Amino acid sequence: MTCNSPYLSIVAVSRNDDHGVGLLQRMQHFIDCLSEEVNQARLPVELILVEWNPPTDRPFLYQALSWSDPSEFFTIRIITVPHEIHKTFANSENLSLFQMIGKNVGIRRARGRFVLATNIDIIFSEELIRFIAKKALVPGIFYRADRIDVEAHIPPEGDLDEKLAFCQTHIIRINSRYYLSSLSNIKSVFYDLVKNPAILAYYGKNFFYKLKIPRLHYNACGDFTLMAKKDWDALRGYPELEMFSLNIDSLFLIAAYFSGFEESAWRPPLVTYHIEHSIGSGISPGQGQRILFQRLERDRIPFLTWRDCVTLALKYKGQIKGPEKTVQYNKDSWGLAGYDLPEVTLSE
User: Fold this and answer.
1) Alpha-carbon distances, residue 338 vs 268, 327, 334 (angstroms)
2) Is residue 335 part of a domain?
3) 294: part of which helix (H) or strand (E)?
4) What pTM does this model have?
5) Does residue 2 lie in a domain region?
6) How far apart are CA 142 and CA 125, in angstroms?
7) Separation between Cα atoms, residue 347 and residue 77, nearest integer Å
């Protein structure tokens, strides 16, 4: 089995817009480390980058990034969703990228037996890649892993060992199943509460709603959710909500659980490292959340609150149907199935 029939498809979405500052550098770390790791482990992988609504004044991703030498174990496919399709979605004038719909584009077109949905600023631990390379994954389970947030100034010229060593020694926070299980996280939350006591009400409200749903590993689940391709297909990917991606990944986990799939949450050292980006550009605890919500409201970008997520999940629970007995929240055309999208393949 080579990358012509990969064991694993890894799907991420991006565009060359410098989101979060230093986006291309973070993507370069992601690609370089992944390429070296899968070749060392001899794990047949295809990386599917969905380039959503590329800016017209900047190079395409395949032009803007550097690519490693060809390998029989690593193929890169870049699938483009052009502006003409992007503008057909609601809120497209205020939101330049629909992350979860973009991931569905890649998931739908994936060729691997298993599909990992992740993001472009992730470095996987070597232990995690070696574990997947054992090819012991089974259908019917969605796999999760902790995300460890690390400082952004990873040595750009460093090799894999140097970059992993940096990640292990420059930790900001640990997104495990139980966030307050880490002393560094407790200190971070305490610091945020001192600066902004109103956050306490937000945390309390979210905790109340979490009592209504299954106890799953929700923290940073958009950065690592791994399932069999046929299971992604049965669920029709992520709910295709035309809004900011916040909490849609958690909504998917709940729907998968209600549909009879089981969770397997991996423990360290099977982890991912997330390269920190500018505050408010994505979801981060405390002050970062407040800045993000202010930006979304200012730019009139709708998003799914945790209360909305729980309410919608419980509604989905009553919509299980079909021979697979799965939640059916998307149409048969999910993942832009009816479109012949441009694709560039970088392979052997």
Assistant:
1) 41, 22, 9
2) yes
3) helix 287-298
4) 0.92
5) no
6) 19
7) 8
Radius of gyration of the chain (CA): 19
**Spatial distance between the Cα atoms of 239 and 202, rounded to a whole number of angstroms:** 25
Cβ atoms of residues 39 and 75 within 8 Å? no
To the nearest whole number, what is the mean pLDDT of the chain? 90
Whether 3 maps to a domain, the answer reads: no
Which whole number is the average pLDDT over 114-122? 98
Place of tokens 């001192």: 194
Half-sphere exposure (Cβ direction) of 227: Cα atoms closer than 13 Å: 26
Which range of residues forms the domain containing residue 84? 8-346
- Residue 281, Ramachandran bin (φ over 0: left; ψ between -120 and 50: alpha; else beta): alpha
Which residues, other chains included, contact 51 with Cβ-Cβ below 8 Å and sequence gap of 6+? 13, 14, 15, 16, 60, 61, 78, 79, 80, 81
The separation between the first and the last C-alpha atoms of the chain, rounded to the nearest angstrom, is 14
Residue 62 lies in a domain: yes
Give the DSSP letter string of 239-252.
Answer: ---SS--TTHHHHH
Per-position DSSP letters for 84-120, written without gaps between them: HHHTTSTTTTT-S--HHHHHHHHHHH--SSEEEE--T
Q: What CATH number is attached to the domain comprising 116?
A: 3.90.550.10
Residue that has been written with the tokens 């997947």 in this structure: 132
Query: 49 has which bridge partners?
Result: 12, 78
Q: What does DSSP say about strands 114-117 and 225-228: parallel, antiparallel, or unpaired?
A: antiparallel
pLDDT at residue 289 above 70? no
213-253 per-position pLDDT tens digit:
899 999 999 999 999 999 999 999 999 999 999 999 999 99
Q: Which residue has the tokens 């030498």?
A: 69
pLDDT of 332-348, one tens digit each?
A: 999 999 999 999 998 64
Q: Which two tokens stand for residue 227?
A: 């399932």
Question: What's the total number of domains in the chain?
Answer: 1
pLDDT, one tens digit per residue, over 8-55 is 999 999 999 999 889 999 999 999 999 999 999 999 999 999 999 999
